[in-house]
UniProtKB/TrEMBL annotation:
GO terms for molecular function: cobalamin binding; DNA binding; metal ion binding. CDD domains: HTH_XRE. Pfam families: B12-binding, B12-binding_2, HTH_3. Keywords: DNA-binding. Transmembrane segments: none annotated. PROSITE patterns: B12_BINDING (PS51332), HTH_CROC1 (PS50943). InterPro entries: Cbl-bd_cap, Cobalamin-bd, Cobalamin-bd_sf, Cro/C1-type_HTH, Lambda_DNA-bd_dom_sf, Meth_synthase_dom. Residues 9-63 form the HTH cro/C1-type domain. Residues 173-297 form the B12-binding domain. It comes from Anaerocolumna chitinilytica. It comes from the Bacteria. This is Helix-turn-helix domain-containing protein.
Length: 297
């Protein structure tokens, strides 16, 4: 029985806010095995011991009680979060989503944020990738639509919590109006972008879906945005985007804001701007930031 190992594993696991269940998933073992590690009944093999050390940013010698040095500098920022890689965090989050364990998913994201993972990383590298996996499962018929909707709502709740814990930067001169055209309901990607821009000080007006073109024009008149951003996920909604863009340009003429469109609906499009009448095609937060900095604005 190695009491030093069992006590130290339990201590560093608890300090990171990681449950036995979480650690078991990351190690690829049962929760009972982790419990036995912490009771001193079992000792992990060399490979598992090495992964535990990597996960928590400690030396194997420390785990085994051979010295009192708690941490070592691996040069890997992923150690901040208590997980060996982004893939580990994503795998655990997907497992929690599919199990419907919203509480544990919130705890996981909260711990990652507290450990120094940036909100951009949490949004785009963790939550964004998780939603891509959820979408792929739904398309394959492996996930019922009710669960896809439930996970989407959970992600929106998580985003609100993450955003509320972030400090807003100084005011930016940029103004953006964001929406999804017609009945397009897939908005998480666009909301991620607008959340980050708002935290960076942008003046964001998000008006969502099913807004008539005439009402969008009134919003443009009142808010005077530099950019209008459309997000289109379903190809069947491209026509709605094109018709709305045409209405905006016809009404405002040369004084129309710059319009950017993006989304998975355009994956097979050879010329998105020609197809929709938009000024720019963008697929990322960085695309919008670059457009905002152009002299044309």
């Amino acid at each position: 029985m190695n009491t030093d190992f069992s006590a130290r594993l339990k201590s560093i696991r608890s300090a990171k806010g990681i449950t036995q269940k979480d650690l078991a998933v990351l190690l690829g073992v049962g929760q009972t095995t982790v419990a036995n590690y912490e009771r001193g009944i079992r000792l992990p093999d060399t490979d598992k011991l090495s992964k535990i050390a990597s996960l928590f940013g400690v030396t194997i010698d420390y785990l085994l009680g051979r010295n009192e040095i708690i941490t070592h500098n691996t040069g890997d920022d992923s150690v901040r979060s208590g997980f060996s890689s982004q893939a580990d965090s994503l795998r655990l989050l997907m497992k929690l989503f599919l199990e419907g364990d919203q509480k544990s998913a919130k705890e996981l994201l909260r711990n990652l944020q507290k450990s120094g993972v940036t909100i951009r990383e949490l949004y785009f590298q963790i939550l964004g990738e998780a939603m891509k996996e959820v979408g792929a499962l739904w398309e394959k018929g492996s996930l019922d639509i009710w669960k896809e909707h439930y996970i989407s709502e959970t992600v929106m709740d998580l985003m609100r919590e993450l955003k509320d814990r972030e400090k807003k930067n100084n005011t930016s001169p940029h103004r953006l109006l964001a929406l999804t055209p017609g009945p397009e309901l897939h908005s998480i990607g666009l909301r991620m972008i607008t959340d980050i821009l708002e935290l960076e000080g942008w003046d964001i007006t998000y008006i969502g879906t099913n807004v008539p073109a005439q009402s969008i024009i009134k919003a443009v008149e009142e808010k005077n945005p530099h950019i209008i951003a459309f997000s289109v996920t379903m190809p069947s909604h491209i026509d709605s985007a094109r018709n709305t863009i045409l209405a905006i340009k016809n009404y405002f003429g040369n004084h129309a804001p710059k319009i950017i469109v993006g989304g998975t609906a355009f994956i097979n499009s050879s010329d998105v701007c020609a197809e929709t009448g938009a000024d720019y095609y963008g697929v990322s937060l960085e695309d919008i930031e670059k457009i905002a900095e152009m002299k044309a604005l």
